[in-house]
Amino acid sequence: MRILLIDDIRNLKADVIARNHDEGLNQLTFNGPWDILLLDHDLASFDEDGIEKTGYDIMCFLEEHPQFVPEDIVCVSGNPVGKKRIEIVVKKIMETKNEDIYSADSTSKKLGIEYRDDGTWKSFIVHLWFWKLWVYCYEY
User: Fold this and answer.
1) How confident is the model at residue 94 (pLDDT cuts 50, 70, 90)?
2) Are 16 and 1 a contacting pair, CB within 8 Å?
3) How confident is the prediction for the chain on average, in pLDDT?
């Protein structure tokens, strides 16, 4: 299990610790996939114009780039307002992720199942233990 901590001060148990916004984004995009993201809100990071870049900005990036979203995201911030903002985005991302998992079209793509142009399915049998679901489909 790979754990990424993005935090300017804490030293929690993690495989990699990124101390600011830019290091965190680099780890997410170039060194993933990550199983768990531990994310602080206040990262003591500022852009050229002096605007603060926070953990919330990282969550907004992940919302726009779902291919980098870890399996689990935990906000470790002591800032109650920042933590709430991050948790709202986490909830939204995870709900979207679950909708994608359960939609027939995305599930068939993930499993390599193809729908034919003539309206029939290629033969397949899938047993998904983690969903406790049997799916049988045959060529018509």
Assistant:
1) confident
2) no
3) 79
Q: Is 33 helix (H, G, I), strand (E, B) or coil?
A: coil
- What is the architecture, at CATH level 2, of domain 3-102? 3-Layer(aba) Sandwich (3.40)
Per DSSP, the residues of 69-114 read --SEEEE--S-HHHHHHHHHHHHHHHHHHHHHHHSHHHHHHHHT--
For residue 124, the SS3 value is strand
Return the half-sphere exposure (C-beta side, CA atoms, 13 A cut-off) of residue 53: 19
Global pTM exceeds 0.85: no
User: CA-to-CA distance for 73 and 101, rounded, in angstroms?
Assistant: 17
> What are the sequence ranges of the domains in the chain?
3-102, 104-140
The whole-angstrom separation of Cα 44 and Cα 7 is: 9
Q: What is the DSSP letter of 19?
A: -
pLDDT in tens, 63-86: 999 999 999 999 999 999 999 999
